[in-house]
Amino acid sequence: MAARITYARNEKLRTVKPGYPGNKLFGSQFANGEELYTPQFSNVFRWKVLTENPQKEEKKADTWVPEVVSCSEFLQSQADGLVWLGHATFVLRSGGTTLLFDPLLFDSTFLKRRHPLPCRPEELTGIDYLLLSHGHRDHLDEASIKLVARQNPQVQVLAPLRMAPLLRGMASSLPVQEAGWWQQFDLGADAALEIYYLPAAHWHRRGLNDLNKVLWGSFLIRAQGKLIYFAADSAYADHFGDIEQQFGPVDICLVGIGAYKPAFMMQLSHTNPHEAAKAANVLRAGHIVPMHHGTFDLSDEPASEPIRTLQEVATGGMLRGELHVPKVGEVLPWPEWE
To answer: Is 25 exposed, middle or buried (0-12, 13-18, 19+ CB in 10 A)?
Structure first.
C-alpha cells in the first residue's frame, strides 16, 4: 500500500515562499521536495567491500591538512567576524549577536579530526543562536551539544522539523524552535537578524529505525544588509535556483566541497567542487567560503583534491564570486566585503 502523503510545517512561523504547503511526508518520512530518497545499503557494501579506490595510493600519500590559527581572542571579543572551526562548523558574529553552526568539537569512534580545533571548546561561550542543519553525526554531535548547552544557558536552538525530541535526549533544557523549508524563525520584534530555514537535497538517519524522520535543510541569514547562505550538506539540485529566485543574489555562500567520491555513494548527498561552484554561481554569490573538507576522512578523494579543484575552477574564471580559502580559525571580516 502506498504511503500516505501529508505536509508539515511550523504553523506558528511565517512561510516566505508563496503557496508552499510545507514539507512533503511519505508516511513518516520527509522527502527531497517531491521525491523520497532512501539510501541503499547495497551502495555501502559496494563501496567498502566490492570496490577498490582507484586513488588509493594518491590518497595515502596526500597528507595535506588545513593550516590552523587560534581564534581565542576573537571568541572572547564582541567583534564582527566569520570563523571556520573545521568541517561545517562556523562562528558568525554580527553586531554583538553570535551564531554557532553545526558544532562538531570532539573526536568519536568513527570521526577523528585531522587537525586541531583553533580554540578550546570551553571558549565557545556567549553563543546566542545554535543553528543545526540536520541530524547526521558529523553535524549533530551529542558531546558538542551538551557542552554548548552547559556553557551557554541563554542559547536558543534553531533546528528543522522534528529535531526537538532528539535534542531533549542530549540537553533537556535547550529551548528549540523548529522550522520547515521556506520558513522564517521568530527571533523577536527587536532582532537585528533574520534567519530562514531553506531546502537541501539530503536525508536523515542516526539509528536503525529513524530514516528520514527528522528534516534536513540549509540556513539563510540576513545581517547588516547582507545575505549569508549556509548550504549545509546537500547534493546539487534545483533548490539553489529557487533560493536565488526567492531572495535574489546572496552575498556570502558557505558551501561544502568534500566527501564526493565514489560518486555512486556520495552524489545524492554532497556537492563536489564543480557542483559547489555551480551552486554558488546559480546563487549569484559575491563571496564563496568552502567547507566540509580537510577535517575528517569521510570518502575516497585525496585530502587536498577538493580545495585544489575549486581553486582551479576559480583561477579558470568559472567562479563568478570571490573565493576565500581561510585557515581554520582565521577571522574573516565579512561586513567589509563588497
So the answer is: buried
Rounded distance between C-alpha atoms, residue 8 and residue 181, angstroms: 10
Q: How do residues 62-115 score in pLDDT, each as one tens digit?
A: 999 999 999 999 999 999 999 999 999 999 999 999 999 999 999 988 899 999
Angle, CA 133 vertex, CA 71 and CA 185 arms, to 5°:
100
Give 293-325 pLDDT, tens digit per residue.
Answer: 999 999 999 999 999 999 999 999 999 999 999
Phi/psi class of residue 294: alpha, beta or left (left: φ > 0; alpha: ψ in -120 to 50)? Answer: left
The CATH superfamily assigned to 5-336 is Ribonuclease Z/Hydroxyacylglutathione hydrolase-like (3.60.15.10)
Residue 104 one-letter amino acid: L
Give the count of beta carbons closer than 10 Å to the beta carbon of residue 245: 10
Cβ atoms of 82 and 332 within 8 Å: the answer is: yes
Alpha carbon of 309 to those of 4, 202, 224, 301, 324: distances in Å? 43, 23, 32, 11, 14
Domain boundaries, the chain: 5-336
Q: Is there a contact between 268 and 236 (Cβ–Cβ < 8 Å)?
A: no
Res 317: pLDDT: 96
Of the candidates 49, 8, 52, the one whose C-alpha atom is nearest the C-alpha of residue 27 is 8
- In the predicted model, residues of the chain with pLDDT beneath 50 are none
pLDDT score, position 1: 61
User: Does the reported pTM lie above 0.85?
Assistant: yes
- First-to-final CA distance of the chain: 55
